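Suppose you are handed only two things: the residues of a chain and a line of SMILES describing zinc ion. What would the bound structure be? This form records exactly that question and the answer produced for it, so the two can be stored side by side and reused later without any lookup.

QUESTION INPUTS
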Amino acid sequence: MDRAAPLRSRPTLLSGFDPGFATSLCSGALGRIDFMSNNSARQRFDWTNSLFLASVHLAGIYAIVHLTVFYFSWWTLGFGALWGVFCGLAITGGYHRLFAHTSYSASPLLRAFYLAFGAASVQNSALAWSADHRRHHAKTDSDSDPYDIRRGFWWAHVGWVLHRDVGGKKMDKVNDLHADPLVRFQHRYYIHLAVLFGVGIPAAIGTAWGDPLGTLLVAGFLRLVVQWHATFSVNSLAHMFGRRPYSKLTSARDSFWVALVTFGEGYHNFHHRFQADYRNGVRWFHFDPTKWWVWTMARLGLARNLHRMPADRIAAARQAIQQADHAA
Ligand SMILES: [Zn+2]
Ligand SMILES: [Zn+2]
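ANSWER OUTPUT
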């Protein structure tokens, strides 16, 4: 959905460092945040999330040390990559395009796959993730946007994860998802599933080639760090750098580079303009492995009702932008 939201000057990587975020790091110990903008006054520094994120990053760095100094194994590396693909698709094809946008329907087997590996991706339950994401689309570039890019690169990338709303998390506009018993189960046992699929199963499988610790570190923690920053880059980089061929009403941009590390999620300008479409990279040559995955799942009978915007509507949106550019 497009909205005519007033944007401040385009943020840059350096100017984007939110002074409120820095303030929060200092004042968090006092249990109080004295932010500079109205919207941030509703948020407090979240010590639990922040210490958890910091610890996982340290474990991810140690995974590289383990792999390069103590014990190198192609099995460990390959399995870590495979787990990364499963978890990545669970977020892009599952949390994002299926649950948050309902751009297609999926069989219980495929939904269970998404929910298990989505939990392993430690980005909250599908229900909570979708509530945030639907608000992002409905309120893009406003005070109610959870990852509002107007607050700078760091806020949109990770600052918002390190804070929590005073008064608890808003979980509105997800009643349709709440009706799914699998989604409710995952929401209830999210932490159990995150531990099981995030680190438990990888460590157990790693014993098969004698490297349970390395597999735990690489497929568990290093994979998680890489995956987090890939996902975060959609909220930060894809709202800062790239072209806007379909709409200039929001900050969302099409970025091949972000698409490259997010299984196709970087075509974010198209996605904000036509969020009901299961494709993000709409042209045949766009690098969008998630759309190929969903298409394949449909061929296997595990997905159906794949929504596509009519080609003439997409062409009309492009043409309107081109005409506006010529007139300018
Ligand atoms: Zn979206
Ligand atoms: Zn966005």
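WHAT STANDS OUT: The first helix runs from residue 19 to 27. Residues 1-37 have pLDDT under 50 and may be disordered.
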